[in-house]
């Protein structure tokens, strides 16, 4: 692994928020949430962002940048950040942008924006994640159709207060997996207007579960070990691992990464895979439930279509 | 304007590249370029990126992060960065992600990644921009249908060599303009599957030209003056302004910002609006033509759907 030089970055997750779609579904013992009629992902995103601001005791006027760490667009144009801005910051001139690494978009946004804060460019950044999974689920592909939930989560990231900091952050992409998780249609390569009766499948979410698992099993153990080594942190020092709630295979993968059951959060049966909202939603929930306290060392860990993996050691 | 604290960032545009679609069209005296059958934006993006690497005398193995600063996705999932990675870096573990602020995505990516380099996280970043404008142009809206070209541009951004640096960078979003430039469909709010005979127009690019002009005329003069003041730079010190080649209205807007004809590039009739590739394509062209030399102070200036504006003073 090529070394990514880094130093500790002094930032604080000053407040978090979460919102889940209203329509509850059950697949066997698994609970999922999908948008109800009239409800949109934008509504959920704004709701989560407002809660994050409230918990951070921060007004939108104090925010220096609005970043959507989302895997999918709300509209093809403009970027999601501008649409969140319209609902929350109309009349203000806060810059808005999107950062996308699919399922780990929140972690990429957190990583990048923590550097912007460290360098003194911004003081407070609002990061909002969430996706409309239900817009492209294929009823014919049970494995993915029954996996996802529509949800949003957000955080106010601010300059460190002495406690909060990011000890180490690393992202890798192995494009051998670029087509293991995809929606082939809907972009420039196969535009919306090209959809016909023969290629409708290409516009659905398509997940090759066993291929992804195989690639993760091949890449992640070394990735995690090398990150820990580079960070100089032992697994035992970590209070809680918050992994992307990718699928029920979490209990297969995590022990192979050296994290036995009980050391990481697994709520897949409770709320499924929330795409980009998955990690921040789980973190927000852990804070809400009191499992995570200020000063705790957390590992935020995720895989994304790409195949991309993010590893972040964070003192909450 | 809320002050964005900033310091000079020592980075160098080590090499640039550009590629334009093969199919040439004429609308009166205006020349435009659109993808030819079998040609894709991914092809153009890879071509521009390879040229940038070559000009920077850099191998892909030396790149620490691949960032697509693009307004539109190639596929709905995964992110564009992963698809570029697959074509250029398969077998390597370089992280890949997208940064999107629509037409100014290149400037946002350059801004954000220069901070990642300044902080020591990365040494060399490949930034690739470009969009498939032709995928969503509405033949019924002449103003936009005849404006855009399909193209790509790229740069290798590396730690400063003593000459190159970003003196000042600022981004603002005024979401009063969120719906002046948009493609309403194709994302989570109006998915590809919801297209029918009654709402096809919503999946086309839709530009309210006179509304955008009015908002730009209202916001940009103060924005540009305040940025120059904050940067402590006089217009006369700037060797060349490279604006987003938004439309033929460039010659109306630029003088109102204090930049008379001859102080800025205008190639709109030659190649049109290339969306996110617009600014880097023009910069690459200016370098190629010898208009821009190492050590020159440039102003990269752009507006984007949002309404977003980016202002960057760069010593090339």
Summarize this, please?
The structure is a homodimer. The first copy, chain A, has about 325 residues and is of the alpha/beta class.
Description:
The structure is a homodimer of 316-residue chains. By secondary structure, chain A is of the alpha/beta class. Helix content of chain A is 28%, strand content 25%. In chain A, the strands form 4 sheets. In chain A, strands 1-7-6-4-5 form a 5-stranded mixed beta sheet, sandwiched between helices. The longest helix of chain A is centred in the last third of the chain and has 23 residues, at 209-231. Chain A starts with 10 loop residues before the first strand and ends with a strand. In chain A, 60% of the residues are buried. Chains A and B meet through helix 2, strand 5, helix 3, strand 8 and strand 9 of A and helix 2, strand 5, helix 3, strand 8 and strand 9 of B. Strand 5 of chain A pairs antiparallel with strand 5 (96-100) of chain B.
Overall structural class of chain A, as computed from helix and strand content, comes to alpha/beta
Distance between the termini of chain A: 27 Å
Q: Summarize the biggest pleated sheet of chain A.
A: 5 strands, mixed
Shape type of chain A: globular
Radius of gyration of chain A: 19 Å
Q: How large is the share of residues in beta strands of chain A?
A: 25-35%
Most extensive interface: A-B, 83 and 84 residues
Number of strands of chain A: 13
Count of helical regions of chain A: 8
